[in-house]
């Protein structure tokens, strides 16, 4: 942000309002609209933050059949003020956290928008699930935000150092931090890392996201549930995504625990997560190497040499297949929508011609 930027929104800078956003909003301001950031969406209404404070507003945006285009927590929007405030437009997003919809349709679901840091919460009270962490990392990298792995519940860990080493090996280039909301371990470090930007918490139920969020907020603002001892899983104490300001600056978006973590058009994220396999593949003898039994396969050579775990290649293949399946379903849906649009145009033209014929 420019040092000379004066916030004309009346107080949205703590929520991430910048000079570039202000410039993008110019035409909306000329139309008598006000900027607002969506804190929570609930059944056609939303809680939004404006320069003059929070408002409850209706969503009056043009209907979109694609959930990727619907408003979500973190969006910047144009608000028409009045007795019944209405959000009438969204500003372009600079990052989006997207997964396949829980219904397993061909649509994607946006979990949060305009995020700077994705905190992936991994509990040390249970063995680290490498495959689940790789999925979350793919979603995080693909969002255009910065991933950060936070190992929670260090007070319940049997070997926090080993878990830290394992997570670091799975996520080269990503910071890994061991924390405990109960003891306060490394919470000051985490607070400094998150200061000034928008952070979203991702993880499974029972990962300790709400406890971590409360520790960062300095207040028991978010509900915390019990975790089952037999499997380490918890209840969905967070039932919807919500944006709240952090005391040290910046904002935090807490999300419900993710039971289904399905990829949606995350090819770039997969390339980042499995960068070592992508690099090895460039040295295979054949450009279309499937990394099975082809001669000159650099990936298989690395596995034989003990440089690449076979589990890592299996996970890479599984996530690639899943992502390709989601992309194929999306392509088929888009083709179907274009076909329906063309049919509607054809029906309209035929009706027009029949009307003209009757008039002649």
From TrEMBL:
A single cellular component GO annotation: cytoplasm
E.C. number: 3.6.1.-
CDD domains: YjeQ_EngC
Residues that coordinate or bind GTP: 152-155, 203-211
An example Gene Ontology biological process: ribosomal small subunit biogenesis
Subcellular location as annotated: Cytoplasm
Keyword line: Cytoplasm, GTP-binding, Hydrolase, Metal-binding, Nucleotide-binding, Ribosome biogenesis, RNA-binding, rRNA-binding, Zinc
Domain CP-type G: 103-261
Pfam families listed in its UniProt record: RsgA_GTPase
GO molecular function, one term: rRNA binding
Cofactor note: Binds 1 zinc ion per subunit.
Xref: InterPro entries: G_CP_dom, P-loop_NTPase, Ribosome_biogen_GTPase_RsgA, RsgA_GTPase_dom
Domain EngC GTPase: residue ranges: 113-259
Catalytic class of the enzyme: hydrolase
Binding site for Zn(2+): 284, 289, 291, 297
Keyword field contains Cell membrane: no
Chief site of localization: cytoplasm
Function: One of several proteins that assist in the late maturation steps of the functional core of the 30S ribosomal subunit. Helps release RbfA from mature subunits. May play a role in the assembly of ribosomal proteins into the subunit. Circularly permuted GTPase that catalyzes slow GTP hydrolysis, GTPase activity is stimulated by the 30S ribosomal subunit.
Oligomeric and partner information: Monomer. Associates with 30S ribosomal subunit, binds 16S rRNA.
Protein name: Small ribosomal subunit biogenesis GTPase RsgA
Native source organism of the sequence: Nonomuraea rubra
Organismal lineage: Bacteria, Bacillati, Actinomycetota, Actinomycetes, Streptosporangiales
Name of encoding gene: rsgA
